[in-house]
Predict the structure.
Amino acid sequence: MARRIVLTSGKGGVGKTTVCAALGLALAAKRRKTLLVDADFGLNNLDVALGLETRVVYDINDAVQGRCGLADALLRDDRHPSLWLLPSVRTDGERLTRSALASVLARVDDDFDFVLIDCPAGIDEGFHRAVSVADEALVVTTPHPAAIRDADKVLTLLGTYPLHAVGVIVNRVRGDLVVDKRCLSAQEIAAVLGHPAMAYVPEDDTVTICAATGGELPRSPAARALGMLADNLTDGGRKLYDCTYDYRGLWGRLKLYLRRQV
Ligand SMILES: Nc1ncnc2c1ncn2[C@@H]1O[C@H](COP(=O)(O)OP(=O)(O)OP(=O)(O)O)[C@@H](O)[C@H]1O
Ligand SMILES: [Mg+2]
């Protein structure tokens, strides 16, 4: 039986899809059979984040409507045989009900270790549909006050669902601003939200570069932070990336000084 984890946020653009794709790749690299479900039926782009968009032939709605078998809609990632994608609805998304999504996932549950569900932004039906089929949730926020407030609202809503675990991911943390005390630290944000922190992910240009190509994150600070998240999920630990590490010590202070000059 797969662990079904929804990645949600409230506020849009905080990194749900990015984290979902990178976490899926990290879990697959650890040989955990992982299915990524694109439940953002409005502005889906998980296929693009994975660089699989040109291979999509059928989507989840085709499988629900019987235009193809479920196996035809599942797309295997050539780079990692343990990673699969169930692409989002291309048309008629709003007509796909919670129970239809639940019955699709029930059919694949035994075939995977993890099912990661990429949720749309906001708290309307798309949010509830995605959360209703999950057992666990990861709430993604950035240090931006609006994102933190929306994450807090989402955490309150998640409290109405029978989830086994709810964790927080603080994404796009600027270690230099934290050291300068111009921004809340990831630890402070997690404490404000009052739920266990599962990952602190630094702001990292490599993410932007990879987003443009749909490529896999190479060795980079964000990749390390998301690798720790995969470890935490598989071994139950709580390793958290130190986003201020690069700005400590003599060289760190020099780097900080140079950053302040630009
Ligand atoms: N750690 C990071 N460092 C730098 N850029 C990042 C990081 N995480 C995400 N981004 C960038 O932020 C942008 C938004 O990311 P993404 O699409 O994953 O957000 P989202 O929450 O899924 O958005 P939506 O709510 O629209 O679905 C993308 O351009 C992505 O490359
Ligand atoms: Mg998204």
